[in-house]
Design the sequence.
């Protein structure tokens, strides 16, 4: 093949990719007002509602938990009834899939009509979208229900993994690390990560953590990091090499002691958090980590955990965070997505999610700020002995900066994933 | 018009594959201007080689792919050799069709439910035989060596290869050859291996390559049954393609090209193996050993095949059992109660992917039937002679790893503004549906006695009337079977739906694979059971409809 022909062929074949280039590196670091001049930014709420009616919302949300899936399906029913919105749950294996899709669309020059309308997001995924200017908004304070958010009492609704949310995402559920133990087998569960390693040595194969590529798995390691890092305060700043090395060394030293005593000898891990439930139900696990303080109560009611499953937290506290929904800058149905985000913030949706028969998730709202009729929805919820009340949970530890999650995952992969 | 049908088909077919391969090859060498890749470089390959776990992933891929293919091949050959001319062969054939219809993902999920340490087998044997009151800490699924993956693939590939072998046996005069061999004093098994296998093998070659390519590059089964850290190469590449850091697309593309090289190299290695085996076989034949009665194989092979068919059936059954289960604790052999609660709770969530599965499968199958019939009819009316190249083209999508061209094809779809549309998904499904539809239709179509058509023409019927009233009517059964095959293929596709659907088109397969990572087994059971039942229903319809229509025509019922 002669040279000119080859060049021609390359150019022809590359034509599909020759889109207006937008190198991610060139994107502005600070991303306030990512969709400037968007007509929805100033439209009255009635106009937003009117535009939303009859539109679909492609809600990209991790689909690994059938309880959450059922909650989203319920929200879809209510949104159809109330606002004529067709909420469609795009079930992701990992939230990064949706981020990648939006990045790809931006790279292809698609600034409107994007395929993701709403995405369940936090942590590194949120930071990535925010840094690359991929988010619509700020829209949070356009939502009527946003004024009920408990911004003071639950700072993680405004500060996601130390990253200011700046109205680019709307909180919709609170999460806090708790551990579940089968009280029939573990009457006195370990109250620190160090004690967990000792317990595992005495009870090999009886605990595990989810795959570290899954947010729950790496959270297990971050929880240990809080206890083991020489300077836990450094976790709240971006992970520099100087801060990472001593912390990571302490973490891996502890982990190397723990791992051989994990389920399957620490060579195999459940894919995600919910995958641990059947393992405990079957009796393979006696103890595991979760992000939902009501996990035990909800799962016992659904025959997914033994009736003796009980939650507990660590003496020095556990990590808490907030789940958000965000709207990509090129969402095809941004108005409908805003209405959906607002509905997720409504007392009705929050109380439904807080119901231990549904999700049992702590609300993001400040109950005291709610009108009495709305507050009554929460008072009417059933209680369960398998739910830790807020006093027992303790004030949550703040999530480390997202860079810690990314670095720890990468180190784990290169240490144990080969 | 009709003369152009083969060309149109080729264009619909080769366009996406060519665009897809180019769109994967170029980023593999650093060329993807939209992401700032404007210089050809080897950087993606350096990044690929530095990726943790790559070496093991490649070894795993090769090990599991070859093991599954060799095992399936050996089982099929052993069974055919052991049952030549016996009624067992015909009975096995009848049991095969429903198994073929089962999507890979559903079977893999069912198989996991069966063999997991807390699976049905352990439950049935505990505690009375095993003494277990809790499951053993054994890695029987997702094991680091990929044994569960090999077993799951073998479970699915054996029925396919066996059907292909039966079809091949129908084309050679196996019974006569066996009689001659017996007259010369050869034992039944030895005789079969020496006389029939060399004639059968060429018919099995392409199906075997397809099985090898599939086993080396499969994603959904690997996600469900394969190891996780590291996974097989295909699962690793898929993970990189889904990374939020799009810079990972470059090493991912390089990984997809590496996978392509593994598959092509694997086929080449198999080809070399064929030569070696043929040479050794000829020497073995020339020694003239007659062999004994082959009693061990004549009992063992059917027993193994029976075990495999039973495992297939049990895998489906356990899905249903879970979907109707109330509380079901280890080690209870059966749920303590059966309930409709799961189905009732999931019916709404199931409806959308079920409808999407149905719509896409029907559209892709209808299109494939139309194109296949147009090609076959054009062949007969215009006396076209499809050569080896045409056959290879038909097989191409089955011989290439899906990942190697689906990513590039997705990029092209984005440029065409077609990604995430039903049209894109149907088109992409067509690439995989058409080969199966065409291959299962071509033989009966070409074999139809031309005198039927000539007689009709002599009676004044035009070519379209002959086509419709004579050929389609006479070939209704194979037509519907081909349609059912196409439907089953489409309903089971994972990666093509994922890439072309952009997440917006979710089928039962994509949902089941997503749920397989950790959902409640009852919910997963419902998804996978429905996923398996839809193609089964299509098969049942394909068998029942002609029987009903031809209930008063004895000559048109199957022999």
Sequence:
């Amino acid at each position: 093949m002669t040279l000119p022909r080859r060049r021609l062929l390359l150019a022809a074949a590359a034509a599909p990719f020759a889109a207006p280039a937008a190198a991610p590196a060139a994107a502005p670091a600070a991303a306030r007002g990512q969709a400037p001049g968007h007509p929805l930014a100033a439209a009255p709420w009635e106009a937003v509602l009117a535009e939303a009616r009859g539109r679909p919302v492609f809600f990209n949300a991790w689909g690994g938990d059938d309880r959450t899936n059922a909650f989203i399906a319920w929200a879809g029913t209510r949104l159809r009834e109330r606002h004529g919105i067709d909420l469609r749950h795009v079930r992701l294996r990992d939230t990064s899939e949706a981020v990648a899709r939006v990045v790809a669309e931006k790279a292809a020059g698609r600034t409107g009509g994007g395929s993701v309308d709403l995405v369940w997001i936090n942590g590194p995924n949120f930071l990535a979208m925010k840094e690359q200017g991929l988010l619509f908004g700020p829209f949070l304070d356009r939502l009527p229900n946003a004024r009920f958010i408990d911004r003071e009492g639950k700072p993680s609704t405004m500060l996601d993994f130390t990253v200011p949310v700046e109205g680019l995402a709307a909180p919709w559920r609170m999460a806090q690390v708790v551990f579940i133990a089968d009280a029939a087998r573990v009457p006195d569960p370990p109250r620190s990560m160090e004690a967990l390693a000792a317990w595992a040595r005495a009870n090999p194969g009886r605990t595990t953590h989810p795959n570290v590529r899954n947010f729950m798995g790496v959270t297990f390691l971050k929880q240990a990091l809080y206890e083991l890092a020489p300077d836990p305060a450094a976790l709240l700043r971006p992970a520099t090499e100087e801060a990472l090395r001593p912390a990571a060394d302490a973490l891996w030293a502890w982990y190397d002691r723990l791992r051989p005593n994990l389920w399957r000898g620490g060579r195999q891990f459940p894919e995600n958090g919910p995958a641990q439930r059947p393992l405990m139900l079957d009796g393979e696990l006696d103890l595991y980590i979760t992000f939902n303080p009501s996990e035990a109560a909800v799962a016992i009611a659904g025959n997914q955990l033994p009736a003796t499953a009980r939650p507990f937290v660590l003496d020095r506290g556990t990590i808490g965070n907030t789940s958000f929904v965000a709207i990509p800058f090129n969402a095809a149905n941004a108005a409908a997505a805003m209405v959906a985000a607002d509905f997720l913030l409504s007392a009705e949706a929050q109380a439904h999610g807080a119901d231990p028969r549904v999700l049992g998730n702590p609300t993001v709202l400040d109950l005291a700020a709610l009108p009495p009729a709305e507050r009554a929805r929460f008072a009417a919820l059933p209680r369960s002995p398998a739910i830790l009340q807020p006093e027992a949970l303790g004030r949550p530890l703040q999530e480390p900066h997202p860079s810690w999650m990314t670095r720890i995952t990468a180190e784990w992969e290169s240490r144990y994933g080969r | 018009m009709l003369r152009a049908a083969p060309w149109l088909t080729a264009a619909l077919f080769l366009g996406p594959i060519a665009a897809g391969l180019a769109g994967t090859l170029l980023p593999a060498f650093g060329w993807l201007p939209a992401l700032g890749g404007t210089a050809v470089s080897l950087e993606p390959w350096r990044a690929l080689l530095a990726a943790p776990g790559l070496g093991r992933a490649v070894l795993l891929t090769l090990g599991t792919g070859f093991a599954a293919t060799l095992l399936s091949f050996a089982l099929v050959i052993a069974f055919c050799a052991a049952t030549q001319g016996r009624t067992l062969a015909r009975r096995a054939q009848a049991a095969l069709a429903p198994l073929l219809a089962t999507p890979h993902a559903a079977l893999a999920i069912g198989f996991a439910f069966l063999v997991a340490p807390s699976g049905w087998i352990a439950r049935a044997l505990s505690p009375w035989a095993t003494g277990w009151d809790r499951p053993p800490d054994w890695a029987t699924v997702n094991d680091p060596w990929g044994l569960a993956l090999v077993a799951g693939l073998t479970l699915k590939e054996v029925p396919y290869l066996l059907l292909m072998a039966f079809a091949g046996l129908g084309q050679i005069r196996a019974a006569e050859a066996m009689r001659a061999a017996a007259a010369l004093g050869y034992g039944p098994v030895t005789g079969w291996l020496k006389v029939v296998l060399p004639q059968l093998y060429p018919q099995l070659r392409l199906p075997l390559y397809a099985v090898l390519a599939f086993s080396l590059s499969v994603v959904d089964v690997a996600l469900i049954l394969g190891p996780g850290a590291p996974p097989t190469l295909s699962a690793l590449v898929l993970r990189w393609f889904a990374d939020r850091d799009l810079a990972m697309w470059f090493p991912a593309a390089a990984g997809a090209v590496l996978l392509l090289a593994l598959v092509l190299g694997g086929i080449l290695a198999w080809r070399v193996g064929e030569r070696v085996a043929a040479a050794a076989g000829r020497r073995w034949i020339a020694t003239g050993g007659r062999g004994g009665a082959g009693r061990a194989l004549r009992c063992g092979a059917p027993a193994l095949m029976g075990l495999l068919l039973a495992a297939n059936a049990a895998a489906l059954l356990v899905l249903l059992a879970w979907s109707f289960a109330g509380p079901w604790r280890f080690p209870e052999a059966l749920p303590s109660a059966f309930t409709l609660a799961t189905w009732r709770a999931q019916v709404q969530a199931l409806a959308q992917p079920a409808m999407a599965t149905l719509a896409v499968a029907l559209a892709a199958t209808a299109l494939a039937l139309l194109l296949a019939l147009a090609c076959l009819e054009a062949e007969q009316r215009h006396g076209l002679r499809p050569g080896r190249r045409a056959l290879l083209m038909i097989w191409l999508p089955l011989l290439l790893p899906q990942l190697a061209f689906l990513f590039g094809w997705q990029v092209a779809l984005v440029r065409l503004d077609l990604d995430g549309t039903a049209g894109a998904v149907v088109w992409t499904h067509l690439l995989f549906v058409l080969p199966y539809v065409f291959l299962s239709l071509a033989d009966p179509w070409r074999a139809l006695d031309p005198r039927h058509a000539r007689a009709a023409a002599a009676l004044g019927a035009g070519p379209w009337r002959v086509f419709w009233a004579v050929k389609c009517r006479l070939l209704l059964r194979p037509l519907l079977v081909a349609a059912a095959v196409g439907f089953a293929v489409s309903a089971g596709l994972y990666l093509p739906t994922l890439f072309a659907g952009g997440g917006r088109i979710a089928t039962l397969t994509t949902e089941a694979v997503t749920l397989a990572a950790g959902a409640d087994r009852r919910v997963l059971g419902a998804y996978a059971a429905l996923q398996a039942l839809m193609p089964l229903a299509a098969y049942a319809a394909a068998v029942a409809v002609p029987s009903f229509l031809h209930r008063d025509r004895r000559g048109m019922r199957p022999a």
Notes: Chain A touches chain B through 79 residues (CB under 8 Å). Residues 66-83 of chain A form the longest helix (18 residues).
